[in-house]
Design brief:
The protein is an alpha+beta fold. Helix content is 26%, strand content 32%. It has helices spanning 134-146, 165-188, 201-208, 221-230, 247-254, 288-309, and strands at 5-10, 14-21, 24-32, 41-51, 57-62, 69-72, 88-95, 104-106, 111-112, 116-119, 125-127, 153-156, 193-196, 215-218, 234-237, 258-260, 266-271, 276-281, 313-318, 326-330. The chain has a 5-stranded mixed sheet, with helices on both faces. A 5-stranded mixed barrel has the order 4-5-6-8-7. A 5-stranded mixed sheet has the order 16-17-18-19-20, covered by helices on one side. β9 and β10 form a beta hairpin. The radius of gyration is 23 Å and the shape is globular.
Length: 333
């Protein structure tokens, strides 16, 4: 999907990001200020040890975000952990908490930069499979290997081959320094404590939609300066944020199980424990040509609703005029 505008809105306890395309709101995310975001690094405190299947075990870890996080004792390339209650451990959020389930954390810390991923516990250099210029990727991989400081691992991201070699080496040093700061803070902090906070999701969204994005709306002068340094398009300062662009009304609409279609039909969206069921009601459109057009319109709107409502798991769609169901699997990662 091609986004044209991103609106950032912040209050005392949370902030939100609303993404618009040519037809309107297509995605919205709300972030708590205290939320353990994927990528954050914490000095966690072991709360209890728990037994798992096949004689395995794990730990519940306090990372101070309202829910105990889960840490598996075994991770590939790392020695199996054997800790006790009250012990401190450096962990990174691999999967954010959802509903009543706490976050999943790992000891295998990885730091993501613009061009590289730093992997202190790996001992090789890889590059993204999305890089089409394999010859250049191999040359950059050799560059990274030549600039490794002892045993450490790196992954060249897709954008790495679009910059020069000096930038690659500079980011290597920057990520290495960040990890060293994490280690220093871990030695002087009392668990639970935040050791490293991932950059604002706003900048991730800007990079994600950079090819189509035209405008970013923010609510503070300081953030406006930061965005202008990273984005070449229009940056607008508007303190009203979501209110100015009708986002709050769109959130209310997103909670409604019924979605009206321009053709006169309607979507009915119902979330159950087993799946998400979506029914396409033809309404007044009855003849074959109208049904086909309705289903095409519905398919586009269903894709938008999946993003807008953050739907995941098994999704069952019953299109109009058909006795067949369509199944799909949505992965929001």
């Amino acid at each position: 999907m091609k986004a044209e505008k991103i609106v950032y809105d912040h209050n005392d306890t949370s902030f939100g990001l609303a993404v618009f395309d040519a037809s309107g709101l297509m995605e919205i995310d709300i972030y708590s200020e205290n939320r353990a975001v994927e990528g954050n690094v914490y000095l966690g405190k072991i709360v209890k040890k728990i037994n798992l299947a096949n004689d395995k075990f794990g730990f519940m870890v306090d990372i101070c975000d309202g829910h105990e996080a889960f840490l598996n004792s075994f991770e590939p390339a790392l020695k199996e952990a054997n800790m006790s209650e009250g012990q401190s451990v450096v962990v990174q959020v691999a999967q954010e908490k959802h509903a009543e389930k706490g976050a999943k954390v790992v000891r295998n810390v990885q730091l993501v930069g613009k061009y590289l991923v730093y992997c202190p516990f790996k001992f090789d250099v890889e590059f993204s499979r999305k890089i089409e210029d394999v010859e250049k990727a191999e040359r950059y991989r050799k560059l990274v290997k030549e600039n490794c400081a002892g045993q450490e691992g790196w992954i060249l991201r897709t954008l790495s081959v679009e910059t020069d070699e000096a930038q690659i080496v500079a980011e290597m040093n920057e990520l290495r320094d960040t990890y060293e700061n994490i280690r220093k803070k871990a030695r002087t902090s009392n668990a639970p404590a935040l050791l490293y906070e991932k950059e604002s999701p706003l900048f991730e969204y800007i990079r994600r939609y950079k090819d189509s994005l035209k405008e970013v709306v923010v609510d503070t002068p300081k953030l406006k300066e930061q965005v202008e340094a990273a984005f070449d398009g229009v940056v607008t300062l508007k303190k009203e944020g979501f209110e100015a662009y009708g986002v709050e009304d769109a959130i209310v609409e997103a909670l409604d199980p019924a979605v009206k279609l321009k053709s006169g039909g309607e979507l009915r969206i119902e979330e159950t424990r087993a799946c998400v069921a979506i029914d396409v009601d033809s309404g007044s459109a009855r003849h074959v040509g109208s049904i086909d057009a309705l289903n095409l319109e519905a398919a586009h709107e269903i894709a938008r609703q999946i993003r807008l409502r953050n739907l995941a798991g098994k999704i069952v769609i019953d299109f109009a005029g058909s006795s067949e169901y369509r199944f799909m699997k949505a992965d929001r990662k």
